[in-house]
Amino acid sequence: MSIQNESPSDRAKRVAKIKNSLDTIRQSINIDILTDEEGYIKAALEESFKAAQNGTYGIGAVVVDAKSKEIKGRGHNKLNDSQDPAFFVLHAEIDALRNYFSNNDRNVEDVVVYTTLEPCPMCAIALLNAGVKRVVAGASDRSGQLISHPNDLSPFWKEIMGKVDHRLFKGQPEFGKACKDIFELSRIGLDEMIAG
Ligand SMILES: [Zn+2]
Predict the structure, then answer these.
(1) What angle do CA 188, 116, 184 make, to 5 degrees?
(2) If you placed Cys at 164, which of 99, 123, 132, 133 could pair as Cys (CB 3.0 to 4.6 Å)?
(3) Exposed, middle or buried by CB within 10 Å (0-12, 13-18, 19+), for 129?
(4) Ligand 1 centroid from CA 77, angstroms
């Protein structure tokens, strides 16, 4: 059954099922000793939990100031936001950047964006437009642009891409697996909306 025709009770059931499974995933990343990078991916995962619990794609991102090591922006997928007229661009990376820029100036020289899933083409270009040079993704994705398919960009963007550092997370595998699992769990039934 497609999500468009989902009754409120079916939606509630689907979201409740996701919430139960999220608890199991949360336990898997309940690790005491973390590197900085694992801590940032864990923070991005916490954002992805929020999106999944809200019934949309479980993807989260945080914007980190590499100098102070502080998280200065947080975001998660909000494609199901019924108030924002630009809901269709509310992917985790864009939400996190918007949150960051609402409290910080536009100099992103020292910024690193940690996202749970490899950025899609729209977010890949948005990150480049924002001037972000470093991106770390918790897991790869078939729709990913920056890391898996950088050569598919047009020559203009390819040249810019050659000057930035976008890579996959290399820390404890539990985190990468959790990034993928939350996304896979949350997208059940949702992809039909994009396919139309
Ligand atoms: Zn995106």
Answers:
(1) 15
(2) 133
(3) exposed
(4) 9
Question: 45, exposed or middle or buried, with CB in 10 Å at 0-12, 13-18, 19+?
Answer: buried
Looking at residue 193, its pLDDT comes to 54
* Angle, helix 121-130 to helix 92-101, in steps of 10 degrees: 20
Q: What is the distance in A from the centroid of ligand 1 to the CA of 141?
A: 11
Give the mean pLDDT per block of 10 residues along the chain (196 residues): 70 81 88 93 96 93 97 96 92 97 96 96 92 95 77 85 89 95 87 53
For residue 106, the CA-to-ligand 1 centroid distance in Å is 21
Active-site residue flag, 159:
no
**Cα distance between residue 53 and residue 18, in whole Å:** 7
Q: How far, in Å, is the centroid of ligand 1 from the Cα of 124?
A: 7
Active-site residue, selected from the candidate residues 38, 47, 93, 118: 93
